[in-house]
């Protein structure tokens, strides 16, 4: 698969996500019934940023002073037709969040064996040219994005030149805003070319 990455990175990423999903499903006795969302970023030759995701983990890039969302949030409403074509349904019960079969608030995920026949685990992939104007990249789980928008997160991350400190500040701010979901965060700082 490594060789394929250099010729067809998108196909290699899709295969890696599929292998990850299969590994999680095969370890079900150890891992339980649940699943996971994911966001990954790969910088190739310092000039091409490949970002992939499933679920509601998100990546945001600050480049040339502009904020770019590099991922797609896989809301069940957005994939409703795919879910329904596979025999599932989307419901806002319980609560006010759309859920696959009334259970899962994302339409794509690793694992989740009991809903697998209705879910997808193939990633959305975006590629962006990286040059001297690229400043930072944020990769985070939905616990961050449920309580702040992309611009707010970038403004907080810009305050610190140390990416580890910036990630801790984002996490602390999400907790301060009473996020009720998991909060995982990585900040990447690009060096000027």
From TrEMBL:
Keywords, in A-Z order: Hydrolase, Magnesium, Manganese, Metal-binding, Protein phosphatase
Catalytic activity, as annotated: O-phospho-L-seryl-[protein] + H2O = L-seryl-[protein] + phosphate; O-phospho-L-threonyl-[protein] + H2O = L-threonyl-[protein] + phosphate
Keyword Nucleotide-binding: no
Principal EC category: hydrolase
Top-level lineage group: Eukaryota
Required cofactor names: Mn(2+); Mg(2+)
EC number of the protein: 3.1.3.16
Cross-referenced InterPro entries: PP2C (IPR015655), PPM-type-like_dom_sf (IPR036457), PPM-type_phosphatase-like_dom (IPR001932)
PPM-type phosphatase domain: residues covered: 1-190
CDD domains linked to this entry: PP2Cc
Pfam families for the chain: PP2C (PF00481)
GO molecular function, one term: metal ion binding
Cited PANTHER family: PROTEIN PHOSPHATASE (PTHR47992)
Family: Belongs to the PP2C family.
Protein name: protein-serine/threonine phosphatase
Organism: Rhynchospora pubera
